């Protein structure tokens, strides 16, 4: 495993981190706690030291599993969690007032709930789970973060930027109060490299890449015949004709597989690790097999400039989080 510095936090984090949404037991169906715990432990055995979870993942269940494993290990594991918006809206809608999403008392209360779930005294990185850049100048969130830091309940503050809206935090970056941004970045969604990444390099803000595999679309395993369990949220994400669209787009990249990447998942993860601005990439991993495969791609090898240039051509701007028409 290779390591990078998470911006101005100074924390050395593994290039491959652990995205813990899928082990929460809701929305992503099929996870088993025993396998999730084995996967978490195996990831740490292999050098992973950064885990990202959230208060809403399984209504705290993901945090509980993560906390259990972290408490059982002697290694120093950096834990990130997220404060859900009070109004329950993902993403934050334009025009939403800060007090509807993140009033002072809500920020404090939800952070304390996360600490209880985790069984930890401090969260290394506490993030807002949605964001509007219009809130950059407001004091309520700033005062809450200052209090949590003063009391030792969090070490650093971050923002999980709205889906496919990487420019919706640029003003907030300039406040100097945000230590890391979590953002969607993958072969299809390359927008963060235009403005967010250069600004974060300039200001020394860490970048956590989420959805590097496009919720499974970039694994090469989604076909027109793929069936998800009833009630699994991916039935909407890959609804309508989207399975066919993804299948066709991924197949178009097949000629790029070879010596630099043997599988589509490897190609996708190596692409997200290429920018210098990126601190860590957090694929969702619900099995030991996925952990062992993904962590193996943090080996110091980088994609050639030619391959990166070819992958730039496969950008696909769209939002599958919206229901299919």
Q: Would you mind describing this structure in some detail?
A:
The chain is an alpha/beta fold and about 325 residues long. It has one domain (about 5-220, about 270-300): NADP-dependent oxidoreductase domain (TIM Barrel). It is about 35% helix and about 15% strand. It contains 12 helices and 10 strands. It has helices at about 35-45, 60-70, 100, 105-120, 140-150, 170-175, 195-205, 235, 240-250, 265-275, 290-295, 305-310, and strands spanning about 5, 10-15, 20, 50, 80-85, 125-130, 155-160, 180-185, 205-210, 280. The protein has an 8-stranded parallel beta sheet, covered by helices on one side. Strands 1-2 form a two-stranded antiparallel ribbon. Helix 1 packs parallel to helix 11 (about 290-295) and helix 4 packs parallel to helix 5 (about 140-150). The chain is globular, with a radius of gyration of 19 Å. The N and C termini lie far apart (about 40 Å). The mean pLDDT is about 95.
């Amino acid at each position: 495993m290779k390591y990078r510095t998470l911006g101005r936090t100074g924390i050395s984090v593994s290039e491959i981190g652990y995205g813990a949404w899928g082990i929460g037991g809701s929305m992503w169906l099929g996870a088993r706690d025993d396998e999730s715990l084995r996967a978490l432990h195996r990831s740490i055995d292999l050098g992973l030291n950064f885990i990202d979870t959230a208060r809403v993942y399984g209504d705290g269940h993901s945090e509980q599993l993560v906390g259990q494993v972290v408490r059982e290990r002697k290694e120093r594991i950096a834990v990130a969690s997220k404060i859900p918006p009070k109004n329950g809206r993902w993403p934050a809608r334009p025009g939403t007032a800060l007090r509807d999403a993140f009033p002072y008392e809500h920020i404090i209360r939800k952070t304390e709930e996360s600490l209880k779930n985790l069984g930890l005294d401090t969260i290394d990185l506490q993030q807002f789970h949605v964001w509007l850049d219009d809130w950059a100048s407001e004091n309520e969130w700033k005062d809450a973060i200052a209090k949590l830091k003063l009391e030792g309940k969090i070490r650093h503050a971050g923002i999980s930027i709205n889906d496919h809206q990487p420019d919706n935090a640029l003003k907030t970056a300039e406040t100097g109060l945000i230590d890391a941004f979590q953002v969607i970045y993958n072969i299809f969604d390359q927008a963060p490299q235009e403005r967010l990444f250069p600004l974060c390099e300039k200001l020394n803000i860490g970048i956590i890449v989420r959805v590097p595999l496009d919720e499974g679309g970039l694994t090469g395993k989604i076909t027109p015949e793929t069936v998800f369990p009833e009630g699994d949220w991916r039935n909407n994400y890959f609804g309508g004709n989207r399975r066919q669209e993804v299948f066709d787009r991924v197949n178009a990249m097949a000629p790029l597989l070879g010596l630099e990447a043997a599988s589509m998942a490897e190609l996708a993860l190596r692409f997200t690790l290429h920018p210098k601005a990126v601190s860590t990439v957090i694929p969702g991993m619900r099995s030991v097999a996925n952990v062992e495969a993904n962590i193996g791609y943090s080996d110091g090898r980088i994609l050639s400039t030619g391959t990166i240039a070819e992958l730039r051509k496969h950008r696909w701007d769209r939002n599958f989080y919206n229901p299919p028409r």
